[in-house]
Amino acid sequence: MEGTGVPLVTPFDEKGDIDESKLAELVGWVEERGVDFIVPCGSNSEAELMTAEERARVVEIVVESASVPILAGTGHPGLRESTIQTELAASAGADAALIVTPFYFSHSQEDMAIYYKKLAEWVSIPVYLYSVPKFTHVSLEPDTIAELSDDENIKGMKDSSGNSDLFQQEVEVTKEKDFDMLVGAGGIYAQALEMGATGGVLALANIAPEKCSEIYQLYKKGDNENAKILNDELVELNRGVTGTYGISGLKAAMEMRGAPAGFSRSPHRGVGGDEKEGLQNLLDEARVQ
Q: I want to staple 155 with a disulfide (CB 3.0 to 4.6 A). Which of 126, 134, 137, 161 is the partner?
């Protein structure tokens, strides 16, 4: 996986059911604006609020609707559940699986290394590690990542820590391997590319896919300075939709742009008038129309 990836939101209707037609439409909306690959059933997709069957259906719809590679989020707290979910995604046509670190219970680095190695052995598509300590309260250490990068079916990692020093260490320990390092923090996308990232999986790409794609294209052309300038213009918008306003705010801002983002699932709640005004200001300041 290289370039700009989007952890695609899942449109729900007012009753909380998956809006399948809007989901298919949303795939086209982000593709038209330049994303290089799509990640259904990630954190911004509200995957943890869906059943295993619903997650499989979302992946199926995205695969059917997309013309770019699909990196499907298939991680659960346990090995058995993650293996089953990954094989469902493989059957639907996903190109690879993004597997979040085991969560809820506490696990050592050795526990997690063994978990990923078994998973990579048992599934039929490539595995990408996913570290998102904001939600799981656990991180993969660089030495563990280096060990796992030697596995022939573990092909990369998404780091959503937002820690640029840690990301640099992860790049260093995997740079000689056939291993994709993907950044998951939109605020440091250009910086991560300069460090050696092969791309990013950015919540920001749901709302500003063309801008995120432009950052990557500028970097590929060797124009690092303008890539950073553009990235800097998006920092506050990224902070707003990944922190201040959350997933419901992200979806509201997408709807302001004409994207079919739909509703969020409970316990997420819709945003109010003041929040919408704040989101519109962020869009205007970032020149995202």
A: 126
User: Which of 181, 191, 177, 264 is CA-nearest to residue 234?
Assistant: 191
Mean pLDDT over 217-236 rounds to: 96
Give the type of residue at 148: L
Residue 144: what residue type? T
Nearest alpha carbon to residue 94 among 117, 122, 73, 115: 73
Between strands 199-201 and 3-6, the pairing is parallel
Residue type, 194: E
At 215, the amino acid letter reads I
158 is catalytic: yes
Structure-token match 């995202």, residue found = 288
For residue 40, cis peptide bond before it (omega within 30 degrees of 0)? no
> How do residues 108-147 score in pLDDT, each as one tens digit?
999 999 999 999 999 999 999 999 998 999 999 999 999 9
CA 195 to CA 241: how far, in whole Å?
25
Does the active-site annotation cover 211?
A: no
C-alpha distances (whole Å) from 53 to each of 26, 40, 44 are 20, 14, 18
**Set 115, 116, 128, 130: catalytic member:** 130
Catalytically annotated residue among 115, 128, 155, 158: 158
Sign of CA dihedral 31, 36, 39, 45: negative
At 208, phi and psi to the nearest 5?
-135, 60
Q: Hey, how many other C-beta atoms are within 10 angstroms of the C-beta on 272?
A: 10
3-state secondary structure of 72: strand
Residue 285 CB neighbours (<10 A): 13
User: Does the model's pTM come out above 0.70?
Assistant: yes
Contact predicate 156/180, CB 8 Å: yes
Query: How many angstroms separate the CA atoms of 77 and 98, rounded?
Result: 13
